[in-house]
Structure formats: structure tokens, C-alpha cells
Amino acid sequence: MFKAILIDKQDDGQHVALESLEESRLPEGDVTVRVECSTLNYKDALAITGKGPVVRSFPMVPGIDLAGTVESSTADAYQVGDRVLLNGWGVGETHWGGLAEKARLDSRWLIPHPTAFNARQSMAIGTAGYTAMLSVMALERQGITPERGDVLVTGANGGVGSYAIVLLTRLGYRVVASTGRLEETAYLESLGAQEVIERKTLSEPGRPLGKERWAAAIDSVGSHTLANVLAGTRYDGAVAACGLAQGMDLPGSVAPFILRGVTLVGIESVMRPYEDRIEAWRRLGELLTPEHLEAITDTIALNEAIDKADDLLAGKVRGRVVVDMAG
Predict the structure, then answer these.
(1) Lowest mean pLDDT among 28-37, 225-234, 245-254
(2) Distance of alpha carbon 306 from alpha carbon 30, whole angstroms
């Protein structure tokens, strides 16, 4: 038996509970992992609350991230006792995920656990930090260097935003953080933000082209915010778009693209190739310290995750939430 958060759907709607399950109920896969830690991401919170169409089949164990130890394997790549890490691949959406004490997975979705981190630390990073690193790498590929000017980070209090600030600061960029919670200014400054602006300056409908304010941006918000971010990006700048907290629409104009040569780069982390994952986690190991992870992270037990999902969607959670299976 193992404990798991299980989401099911009946005629009267969605139900979610912490349950004890037989191992025989685990889905198909060539590796079984004893999960040490998982996380609570925005996507996980949508799945648990039913406020977004994340779950594609029922019943489902949510959790798009996990870190743990191989308990059994028929795959050549992994042996019993190996430490492994998973981000994405539809886990928690179409295949049972990490918010459980055990997971059975396709070995192609796994990477060896980064030696720079323990399980709690890697899950403090999770998909959020991994996505932030992919976003930074995308800006670097577009030729964005610290000398080019400021980099804006939207959704700055969230997991992606928090890690983007830390990573950019560590690489020498001057970071402008956009947040709807100005009371968290001290927190954002502690991560490295040198300027904090009010979210409302970007979240309302704006002009097709605005004053050139930043050389680049990492946006996890979408909608009007992304349109305004693009409108305020300097000539030959770049924007990495990796989220849609405000919406998936883009009510903007082509003006930033054809009048300023701005590049919009989409960041997809779920199906990213193995080599990209290894490189992103290698860079994370070089740039992040235990102090960064502690500042950004709150740790809860598996039985607290359901209630915490509501807080996350309500904007009451800053940084990252690690779910420790040991409690």
C-alpha cells in the first residue's frame, strides 16, 4: 500500500482525497520509483481544484515533478537504488504523477538526479526553476547580455519568477520585477531584484508600442501583460514567454516585431529533449546555492497539499512549495 492524492470524477463532479492504494493500481511503466519529494505547481493546483482542464483521464494522481529512488526497473538505463528526477512529460495529466509515495514511469521521462542537490532541493527548484533556466538560456541564445540593459520578470512572486530573478542576478543582469503584491518588495529585493514595479502598470490594455524600457523579459503571465511587455521592449530585444496566469490570449500588435525587431520566444518545458534537460539542470547546479533554495521554499506534508492548492491559486503562496513524503 502507498498513499497518494487521487482525483476522480463522478456524475456529481470532481472529487479529490488522500487515499491508500494498492501498488497493483499503478499504471504501466518500466521503472517504479519510491518518491521522496514532489512539488505543488500552478498546474497541480488547477488539477486538484478542478479549476482548469489539466487532468485528461480519471482517476489521476497529480504532480508534474518528482524526485526519488528506483525501487524496481526493467529498463537498461536505471538500476534499483538509482536516484532519479522527473519534470513534465504529461505526468499528473495523462499518467499518474508525483503527489504519491510511489510512481511507475516510462524510463525515457527520467534523468539521473543532479548530484548538486538532494531530493528536497531539486523539488524546491522543480519545473518552475527548470523553466526559469530554460527561459534564461533562450535569452542568451538571442544575444541578450547584461550590458544590453534591464531584464523584466513578470509574475515575480511565483516560482518561475522567483527563480528567474535569482538566476539572472547571478549572471550579472539588472532585474526589474513586476508583482501584484508590493508588500513582498523586500522578498524580491532579497532575491536580487533592483527595481520592483506594480503589476497593474502592465496588466491593463495598453498601446501597441510604448517607451523602450527593458532589453529583455521573462513572462509567466500572458494576455495583456505579455502584450505590454513586448510593447516596452527595446530595439532588437527578446521576450521569453513561459506561462499564462492572466490568460492565453495575446491582445497586442505586430508593431514590436516589425518596428523594433523584438523576438518572442516560446518556452516549452513538458516535452523538452533529454539533452536540454541535462544542460538546464547542470546550469542550475552551477548557479543556485542552498541559501537561494531556502529563501524561495516552503515545505509541507502530502496531507496538506489539497488545502494548499487553493492558497496557491488565490495568490497567497510565494516561491515554491515542496511536498515531502516523509512529512
Answers:
(1) 245-254
(2) 29
Q: Taking the mean position of all CA atoms in its chain, how far away is CA 232? A: 25
The contacts of residue 76 (CB under 8 Å, 6+ apart) are none
CA nearest to 170, candidates 197, 136, 123: 136
Q: What angle do CA 151, 154, 156 make, to 5 degrees?
A: 100
Are the C-beta atoms of 67 and 36 separated by less than 8 Å? yes
pLDDT in tens, 101-160: 999 999 999 999 999 999 999 999 999 999 999 999 999 999 999 999 999 999 999 889
pTM of the entire predicted model:
0.93
Question: Amino acid identity, residue 321?
Answer: V
Residues 61 and 99: beta-carbon distance below 8 Å: yes
Please write the tens of the pLDDT for every residue from 54-82: 999 999 999 999 999 999 999 999 999 99
Q: Cell 511536498 maps to which residue?
A: 323
- The pLDDT tens digits of the residues spanning 29-57 come to 999 999 999 999 989 999 999 998 899 99
Taking the C-alpha atoms of residue 96 and residue 7, their distance in angstroms, rounded to an integer, is 10
* Region of 239 on the Ramachandran plot (φ > 0 left; ψ -120 to 50 alpha; else beta): beta
- Span 22-31, mean pLDDT? 96
70-98: b (≥16 Cβ within 10 Å) or e: bbebeeeebeeebbbbbbbbebbbebbbb
Return d(Cα 168, Cα 249) in angstroms, integer.
27
